[in-house]
Write a structure and sequence with these properties.
Helix content: over 70%
Structural class: mainly alpha
Number of helices: 8
Order of helices and strands: HHHHHHHH
Number of domains: 1
């Protein structure tokens, strides 16, 4: 009896697992998503207000709801893009911080920036410089003349937007995507500066462009120093919560 010759088995290479991480073009994709989302949500808002002929409080409620929708839109868009890049939540930044100290530094630094900016603008004003375009802030658009029930409703909706949605969505976008992607190909200082400038410009208010740019840079540094988005989210949450409390006190008084 003769043994049959062995049959060579076909060699199968292991499947190629795509490398997880942002790509060089992803910051541009992200900015495109941001602009497209703004145009889309703004168009829908105008159409909604026009179709229902909303006035006064009705317009304010619609604007508040669409503000939340815009933040949710670009936040979820980043998460979807991250999934396509095989980036899990931990890789995106949702992990235990190496240290929490950057929260305090970012918050203290942010208020120092706002205070210093205010003093500088006042000093220029005293010297006779026209500082009109640099005055004012990024206040919550609430009509203090509204009736009690609509006013409370607006405060609740804007509270959700400012305290809960904005810190999460904006940190996912500006730090989780924009800063992290740029930091992978640029020096860290350049990634911090550019992502901070984008954060300042995002608020579409020349009066807060400079201070918010520096605050955005502080948030990016806090993310980098701690290795966690929870740190920049917490700092963002604290600052927005204090701003909301001040607004509520001002409205109720």
């Amino acid at each position: 009896m003769f043994a049959e010759p062995p049959v060579a088995t076909a060699f199968r290479a292991p499947p190629v697992v795509p490398k997880a991480g942002w790509r060089g073009r992803d910051p541009l994709i992200g900015m495109g998503i941001l602009v497209a989302g703004f145009v889309l949500i703004s168009t829908l808002l105008v159409a909604f207000v026009t179709a229902l002929d909303l006035k006064g409080d009705g317009q304010d409620f619609a604007a508040a709801i669409f503000t939340i929708a815009f933040e949710v839109f670009f936040g979820l868009s980043v998460l979807m893009l991250a999934r396509r890049r095989h980036i899990n939540l931990a890789q995106l930044g949702f992990r235990r911080p190496d240290r929490w100290a950057p929260v305090g530094i970012a918050v203290a630094g942010s208020y120092s920036v706002l205070l210093g900016y205010g003093i500088a603008i006042q000093a220029l004003h005293e010297l006779g410089v026209d500082t009109g375009i640099f005055e004012g802030g990024n206040s919550i658009p609430i009509d203090e003349g509204s009736d009690t029930l609509p006013l409370v409703g607006l405060l609740v909706i804007f509270g959700v937007a400012v305290v809960a949605v904005a810190p999460l969505a904006e940190e996912i976008f500006f730090r989780g995507l924009l800063f992290r992607a740029l930091d992978g190909v640029w020096p860290s200082w350049a990634a911090i500066a550019v992502s901070g400038l984008a954060f300042g410009a995002f608020h579409v208010n020349l009066a807060v462009l400079l201070p918010f740019t520096i605050i955005g840079m502080l948030f990016a540094w806090a993310f980098k120093a701690s290795g966690s988005l929870w740190v920049s989210i917490t700092a963002h949450f604290i600052i927005n919560t204090v701003s909301l409390i001040v607004t509520v006190i001002g409205v109720l008084n």
